[in-house]
Design a protein that fits this description.
Radius of gyration: 27 Å
Number of strands: 10
Pfam families: Nucleotid_trans
Helix content: 40-55%
InterPro entries: At1g28695/At4g15970-like, Nucl-diP-sugar_transferase
Shape: globular
Strand content: 5-15%
Organism: Acacia crassicarpa
Strand order of the largest sheet: 3-2-1-4-7-6-8
Number of helices: 11
Domain Nucleotide-diphospho-sugar transferase: 105-307
Oligomer: single chain
Protein name: Nucleotide-diphospho-sugar transferase domain-containing protein
């Protein structure tokens, strides 16, 4: 038997096997990097990129104590129409310029845009911007979402999910609608007690900061990130598919009145409209008012008209205050005429 010959055959076959194996590995690597990659791989990569983007923008906007200010905008809030000379987003940013001790807070504002136009507008102002991708097929978040319309409700739930993700990352936040005017720094009026987990605005204040009978308003609130508030938001969001005809605010209010915050140990403070006011109940004191929310108003056009009046009233107050004038009988809020009419249309 010719043993050396057999050894050469074995070595040749082994070499061929190695060549074939390397060839197959090369094909697999090429296939993986091509445009025909597995949808699963694409999804994982995209998800990782999104998580990294969220963490990056939160870190950039955050204060030293891991607190951010979050607002949501869409095209209807960010883009001027042919008849308009300003937008809701313009008014929102103007209030930071005109308010007391509010200009520096813009550095900690995270603007979440739900469409490309809103995102581009945010980037134009060089703010902290994040474009929210949505899995809601067939839902157009660009146009005006009239109060309690189907798309309005979907947008509110998408917002809640994003804010849950912020809490899970260890960031506390003030959430503010873009139709809230920031006339003073709200941190000076919020409780510094770290045991206060949720501080939330009300449509009408009942003179009891602990009363669960309040009509809450999720257009402005402060949440501390901890296990209790994460559990609250998870419970809240879990009700999304069993809340037909209800907006997320209604669901949270029902949960609070049924005792969910007491069950979870979440300490809630309901905000006084003297400081955190709105069109439902005006603040009675210009010296105390901190924010003004265009609540109890149905359309963007009406909100813009009446918020312009709010800023005019505020500038007038500041002018009279600077001149040491008697403010008692000379300063008052303009009537919210357009918002009143918006419910009749």
């Amino acid at each position: 038997m010719n043993i050396p010959y057999m050894d050469n055959v074995v070595k040749q076959k082994s070499g061929n096997f190695v060549v074939v194996l390397l060839f197959l590995i090369g094909i697999l690597l090429l296939f993986r990097s091509s445009s025909f990659s597995s949808p699963l791989l694409i999804y994982k990569s995209s998800s990782l990129d999104t998580n990294n983007a969220i963490e990056s923008v939160l870190a950039k906007a955050s204060m030293e104590n891991k607190t951010v200010i979050v607002t949501f905008i869409n095209k209807a809030y960010a883009e001027q129409d042919v008849n308009g000379d300003t937008t809701m987003f313009d008014l929102f940013l103007s209030s930071f310029w005109l308010g007391e001790d509010t200009r520096s807070l813009v550095d900690h504002l995270l603007v979440v845009a739900v469409d490309q136009t809103a995102y581009d507008r945010c980037r134009f102002f060089r703010l902290n911007c994040f474009k929210l991708e949505t899995d809601d097929n067939g839902v157009d978040f660009e146009g005006e979402k009239v109060f309690m319309s189907a798309d309005f409700i979907k947008m509110m739930w998408r917002r809640t999910l994003f804010l849950l993700q912020v809490l899970k990352r260890g960031y506390s936040f003030i959430f503010t609608d873009a139709d809230v005017m920031w006339l003073r720094n709200p941190f000076t009026r919020l409780s510094n007690d770290t045991n206060e987990d949720l501080q939330i605005s009300t449509d009408r204040y009942l003179r009891d900061r602990r009363s669960e009978k309040h009509d809450i308003n999720t257009g402005f609130y402060f949440v501390r990130s901890n296990n209790k508030t994460v559990s609250l938001f998870e419970t809240w969001y879990s009700k999304k598919d069993n809340s037909t005809g209800q907006k997320e605010q209604d669901v949270l209010q029902d949960l609070i009145r049924r005792g969910i915050t007491r069950q979870l140990g979440v300490r809630v403070r309901f905000m006084d409209t003297l400081y955190f006011s709105g069109f439902c109940q005006n603040s009675k004191d210009f010296r105390a008012v901190t924010t003004v929310h265009a609540n109890c108003c149905r359309t963007i056009t009406a909100k813009i008209a009446d918020l312009k009046a709010v800023l005019r009233d505020w500038k007038r107050f500041k002018m009279l205050e600077a001149s040491k004038s008697n403010l008692t009988n000379t300063v008052g809020w303009s009537n919210h005429h357009e918002c009143g009419k918006s419910w009749k249309n």
